[in-house]
Amino acid sequence: MVHELLRDISNEDEMRKTLTQVGEHLYIKPGQGLKISDHGAEATKLPVVFAMGGSGSRLVHVTRDSFSKHMIPINWQPLSKYTFDAWRNLGFKNFKFLIDGTHRGNSISEYYGDGSNFGTKNMYSVEQKKVGSGGAVKLAIQNKVIDNNFLWHQPDDMIVNYKNFPTDFANVFLSAVNQGFKIIILCTPGTLYPYGEVIDINGKVTEFVEKPFISKDSSVGIWGMSSEIFGEVSKLESDKEVRIESTLFRRIAKSGGMCKILMPNDYWIPVNDDPNLKKFEEIVKNHRT
Question: What total number of domains does the chain contain?
Answer without folding.
Answer: 1
